[in-house]
């Protein structure tokens, strides 16, 4: 396999994201090479692998509409977005004022600035909404991440501007987009046993029935002559997929439930149809 072109490896993500694969990036990058026609990511989140590889052509998708809108605004005008975010004070009081704003009454530029502001100042970069779809993560206090520099905004904007962005359910996205010669990186949230209950609160979650849909999608990707790499927690749910395709075990520091006392090494699996 041709190794990744290290000259193209430039940037880390702009956002903090629960489940970010930042620590697995070196392992995942081994599967990529520049002969792939396009890079596709149905569960984009903070897109740690995408920013690391900085591919020339990409399709990025996430069911989180505000996340995707934020990337669109970033690509359009990173300087204006940076000005808007840094103009807001980082105090706890201001955080709750910004959090209380109704996103529906904001412009897309204001929503994007609010999204980045909340992401950088909330507890552990978690994205969680209540039953009314309102963002409800508390202030991150000392853990709040500083807003990245304008250079970081510009670097990420340049990479994102080359990507086609959508906010669809993963299997609709894959059926619409996958073509022969594509590289597809899939990093779904880890399944929640009873998603029907959980989904009432959070549409960004992923359940057991989604694992079955994921399995069908992998067959679709393979049948179209594209390559896939999946990362997932070593678990009973993923077993049927592991049995079908095989897997490589890797350990990564994982921040379980966002609390420091639950940070521990977790065993993950990487599943691929790329011949090693
Ligand atoms: C584990 S995170 C991806 C993290 C990403 N690899 C990174 O490095 O930041 C999973 C993402 O899947 C998204 N998601 C959840 N359910 C989805 C669905 N049915 N279709 C598409 N995206 C979904 C979530 O909004 C979340 O951003």
From TrEMBL:
<dbReference type="GO" id="GO:0032259">
    <property type="term" value="P:methylation"/>
</dbReference>
<dbReference type="Pfam" id="PF02086">
    <property type="entry name" value="MethyltransfD12"/>
</dbReference>
<protein>
    <recommendedName>
        <fullName>Site-specific DNA-methyltransferase (adenine-specific)</fullName>
        <ecNumber>2.1.1.72</ecNumber>
    </recommendedName>
</protein>
<dbReference type="GO" id="GO:0009007">
    <property type="term" value="F:site-specific DNA-methyltransferase (adenine-specific) activity"/>
</dbReference>
<comment type="similarity">
    <text>Belongs to the N(4)/N(6)-methyltransferase family.</text>
</comment>
<dbReference type="InterPro" id="IPR002052">
    <property type="entry name" value="DNA_methylase_N6_adenine_CS"/>
</dbReference>
<dbReference type="InterPro" id="IPR012327">
    <property type="entry name" value="MeTrfase_D12"/>
</dbReference>
<keyword id="KW-0808">Transferase</keyword>
<dbReference type="InterPro" id="IPR023095">
    <property type="entry name" value="Ade_MeTrfase_dom_2"/>
</dbReference>
<keyword id="KW-0949">S-adenosyl-L-methionine</keyword>
<dbReference type="InterPro" id="IPR012263">
    <property type="entry name" value="M_m6A_EcoRV"/>
</dbReference>
<keyword id="KW-0489">Methyltransferase</keyword>
<dbReference type="InterPro" id="IPR029063">
    <property type="entry name" value="SAM-dependent_MTases_sf"/>
</dbReference>
């Amino acid at each position: 396999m041709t190794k990744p072109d290290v000259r193209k490896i430039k940037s880390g993500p702009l956002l903090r994201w629960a489940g970010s694969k930042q620590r697995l990036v070196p392992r995942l990058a081994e599967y990529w090479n520049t002969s792939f026609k396009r890079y596709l990511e149905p569960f984009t989140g903070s897109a740690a692998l995408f920013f690391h590889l900085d591919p020339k052509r990409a399709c990025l998708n996430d069911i989180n509409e505000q996340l995707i809108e934020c990337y669109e605004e970033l690509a359009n005008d990173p300087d204006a977005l940076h000005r808007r975010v840094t103009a807001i004070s980082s105090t706890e009081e201001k955080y709750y004022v910004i959090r209380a704003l109704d996103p529906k009454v904001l412009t897309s530029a204001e929503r994007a600035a609010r999204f980045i502001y909340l992401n950088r100042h909330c507890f552990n970069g978690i994205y969680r909404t209540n039953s009314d779809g309102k963002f409800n993560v508390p202030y991150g206090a000392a853990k709040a991440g500083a807003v990245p520099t304008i250079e970081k905004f510009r670097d990420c904007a340049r990479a994102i501007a080359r990507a086609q962005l959508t906010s669809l359910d993963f299997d609709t996205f894959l059926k619409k987009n996958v073509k022969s010669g594509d590289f597809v990186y899939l990093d779904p949230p880890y399944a929640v046993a009873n998603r029907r209950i959980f989904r009432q609160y959070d549409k960004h979650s992923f359940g057991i029935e989604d694992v079955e849909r994921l399995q069908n999608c992998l067959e679709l990707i393979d049948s179209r002559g594209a390559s896939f790499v999946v990362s997932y927690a070593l678990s009973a749910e993923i077993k049927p997929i592991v049995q079908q395709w095989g897997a490589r075990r890797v350990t990564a520091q994982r921040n379980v439930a966002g609390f420091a006392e639950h940070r521990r090494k977790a065993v993950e699996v990487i599943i691929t149809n790329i011949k090693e």
